[in-house]
Amino acid sequence: MKPRAHALAKRRAPGAGAFTLMEVMIAMAILVIALFSILELVSTNLRNARRLQQAPVDCGLPVADIFQNAQLEEGETNGDFGKLFPDYQWTAEVERIGTNGLFHISCYIIKPDHSIERNLDLLMWKPQSKEPMSKL
After folding, report:
1. Are 120 and 107 in contact (CB under 8 A)?
2. For a disulfide at 92, which of 11, 98, 107, 114, Cβ 3.0-4.6 Å?
3. Where are the alpha helices (DSSP H) in 53-100?
4. What is the pTM assigned to this prediction?
């Protein structure tokens, strides 16, 4: 039997058991296409997950509303966010700091369980605001 196995080994062409360059290139192309498809799928899922996240409640909305007023008055203002954030409320306290129209605004977000979630303190300059009657 040994001479016969030796004879079969001689009949094979040299390199017949190896892959050709074309086979390797096709396999690599298929691998690259599969990897890019998986990468696109993961990227799409991450983008969709970001869209589903609920935006945090922010003091920016009430402060922007207060900022649009040409004149500020001292006192407390409050409201809610409507359908955007149901059951959340906000309170803003406006206090005049100087005679030049500088105001200190403290804004608080009140959660549905009546605890304060966030607060924002800022200084706003509104020189068009009238002086309060008590200081005149």
Report:
1. yes
2. 107
3. 60-67
4. 0.53
**Residue 90 is inside which H or E element, if any?**
strand 89-96
Judged by phi (left if over 0) then psi (alpha if -120 to 50, else beta), residue 23 lies in alpha
Cα–Cα distance for residue pair 20/135, rounded to 1 Å: 94
Q: pLDDT tens digits for 76-124?
A: 888 888 888 888 898 989 888 877 888 888 888 888 888 887 788 888 8
The CA angle 100-106-111, to the nearest 5 degrees, is 160
Cβ(114)–Cβ(95) below 8 Å: no
Among 3.30.1300, 3.40.50, 1.20.120, 2.40.290, what is the CATH number of 60-135? 3.30.1300
For residues 1 and 28, what is the distance between their CA atoms, to the nearest angstrom? 41
Token pair 């203002």 is at which residue?
77
One-letter identity of residue 116? I
Instruction: Describe the strand order of the beta sheet including 75-80 as a list of residue ranges.
Output: 75-80, 89-96, 102-110, 116-125
